[in-house]
Amino acid sequence: MQRLVLFMCITATSSVQNFDENSPSISCILNLKCISEDFQISTPSSEQFVDTNHQYPLEDNLFKVELQTGEKDEVITLPSLPMGREKDPLLSDALSFIAGHQLGRCALVIAYDAVFADSLALEALLGMSHQRQVVEIKTPKDFTRLVWKSSKCRGYIFLLGNPVPFLNFADDTEDSWDYLGKYVLVGLSVADLNLFVSSKKGKKTEQVIGLVQEDPDEWKVYRNQLFWGEGVLVANRWRKQGFTSNAEIFPEKIWNLKGAPIKLITFEFEPHIIREKNPDGTGGRYFGSDVQIAIALSEALNFTLIIERPPKGEYWGNKYPNGSWSGLTGKISRNEGHFGMAFIFLTNNFDELAVLDYSRFYSYDTSCFMARTEPPLPRWESLAAPFKQSTWLAASISFLAFCPIIALLAKASDYFGREEKQLQSFSYSNLYTWGLILRVSQIKLPKRSPTQIWFVFLSLYCIVLTTGYCSNLTTFLTVERPRPTMETIKELYSSKLDILAVGYFFKESLVQSGNAYLKGLVPRYIGLPSYESSFDLLERGKGVLMASNTYLEYLHAASLVQPGVPSVRIMKECFSPYNIAIILQKHFPLKRSFDKVLASLFDQGIMRQWFLDTFQLKKMMGIEADFSEEASRKKNEKGGPTLTGGIPLSVDHMQGIFYIHLMSLLLATIIFLFEVYCLKR
């Protein structure tokens, strides 16, 4: 019995040799060593070779080695590729034409393995005048040595007898790859090409072709379809005469998607994304300014828009400690959607650019604060409203000075002649001055000329003062006076109110701010799960709502749909302007086309009009249930302006004078009791 020892060694430096069926022995064919005295070899054709370095399953080319040991036949099947293609001038001519005409202005990156080390194709490429980098591939790590970035057009030509390292590299991560480059792959079967275009790198690469020889006189050029369909298809054929057709092998695939489905991840966020309810209560069509932009993109690029929502309550998403994301951002980062919209700020506060990309901006906004509109000042304070504090102070000082001046002037006048004795009394002169201010006719008049002159000018002073007061008082009695409001960030800091916001995006903005008052708001920041959960706290004056100015404008405008007094207002001072953009998959192929369409829309200035149209449409649909006629009626009952003419003065309007009357009675009673007490003693 004969003894067989079979050693199989896989290396990247194996050599290829021809052999025939009658060879009595094999020694070192791709480091395949067989020690045997009697065996038979059968091959599909004389132009095939054994490639033990290729461990990736192929479809048809199989090399069969039958070993007969006398006792039992053993069959070992090994993958095989066409023999002699590294010396094929047809392939060399095809690659030279593609490099010269399709990649003529590009820098070249040429990667090859041991099978193509001495090939005519590699020799031809090295003889071209392109700026180039040449790398021999032995392991998947060798692909990381390639230069993947360039300021100019870049072409990549891979000559791979063993596609396994390349396929492993393509499906490893999305890093270390030029998604804008043009790729020419040689040595991969159709099945290999299909695997590549569905890999992490391949499915986001626009321009990929593969040359496959299925006939000795022809190389087929397969092209990826990107969004047009699955896998690869034949784009052209290369024969001795050249390409058999004028079909483009590197056509543009990002400007006309031919109705391909593109998935938008979004959620209801008024007024940018609103969903109309069907009569049965189920969700209906979407509309809003962001939806209009998505529709414009689908029409310009000819794709079918599919809308999908993130998990309920996750909204834009939060970053987990392990670096992953929830919500809309999470779905885009996991490639579960192509792009996401929800009036998204273009920022990298939480290292978002590590997992996604942004489009160019299509709008801009600022971060602002919404506070409760404080109830108006009490009506009784209207009695003091006609004059400013400084006017009241001047009038009070004048009144206190007039009383002794009248008494002293009357006494001085009496020294030169008789003057009214009562005017010489300080208490009477005080009462006399009050009479003039209240326009009460005086029985006792001054007799001496100096006192009479003083009396004339004092009367004029009192007339002007009381006329101005009475005229202005009418206005303040009929109009509600708002309380002083905080309008600046400094005033907000001093108010000690909580800062209400959805999530923690705005908190990071406060932390990174150089304004000391903004940084001081961080300890009072409260992240909420939704805007709806903040409304009650806002209405009760427990905090202020922090959001984009556009969204706050919408909330404020909604409270004015019906006549009445809005319960909220936007503070005048905002901060941190942001650009608004679309979030995209990392290395999204349509980014360039999206950016061009968005730039056109922005230049037309149509975004603001879409926002206003959305608001008008929402009003027409009667969605503002919280601001119905009943709510408006209740507000008007509190004394708000109406369209029926004058406003009759109620007890509420005149409450100030009643308070003064009660206070005077109380004061008179206290003085009376004090006098009684003094008399009894």
Q: What do you see in this structure?
A:
- It is built from 18 helices and 27 strands.
- The chain has about 675 residues and is of the alpha/beta class.
- Strand 12 and strand 13 form a beta hairpin.
- Helix 5 packs across helix 15.
- The longest helix is centred in the last third of the chain and has 30 residues.
- The N terminus is likely disordered.
Give the structure's gist in a few sentences:
Helix content is about 35%, strand content about 20%.
Show unreliable segments. 1-84, 560-564, 623-646
The CATH C-level class name of the domain at 85-243: Alpha Beta
Number of helices: 18
Mean pLDDT across all amino acids: 78
CATH architectural name of the domain at 85-243: 3-Layer(aba) Sandwich
> How large a portion of the residues is in β-strands, by DSSP E?
15-25%
Largest sheet: 10 strands, mixed
Q: Span from first to last CA?
A: 149 Å
By CATH, the superfamily of the domain at 85-243 comes out as Response regulator
The quaternary organization reads as single chain
* Helix fraction bin: 25-40%
Chart the SSEs and their pairings.
Elements (H helix, E strand, L loop, with lengths): L4 E4 L18 E3 L2 E4 L4 E3 L5 E3 L11 E7 L4 E10 L6 H14 L4 E6 L7 H7 L5 E5 L17 E6 L4 H7 L11 E5 L3 H8 L9 E9 L2 E7 L7 E8 L2 E2 L16 E6 L8 E4 L5 E5 L1 H13 L1 E6 L18 H7 L5 E7 L10 E3 L4 E10 L16 H28 L9 H12 L11 H30 L10 H7 L2 E5 L2 H8 L3 H4 L5 E4 L3 H8 L3 E6 H10 L9 E3 L4 E11 L5 H14 L2 H14 L8 H8 L18 H26 L1
Parallel strand pairs: 8-9, 8-10, 10-11, 11-12, 16-19, 16-20, 23-24, 23-25
Antiparallel strand pairs: 1-3, 2-3, 4-6, 5-7, 6-7, 12-13, 13-14, 14-15, 17-18, 20-27, 21-27, 22-25, 22-26, 22-27
Helix pairs in contact: 1-2, 5-15, 7-8, 7-9
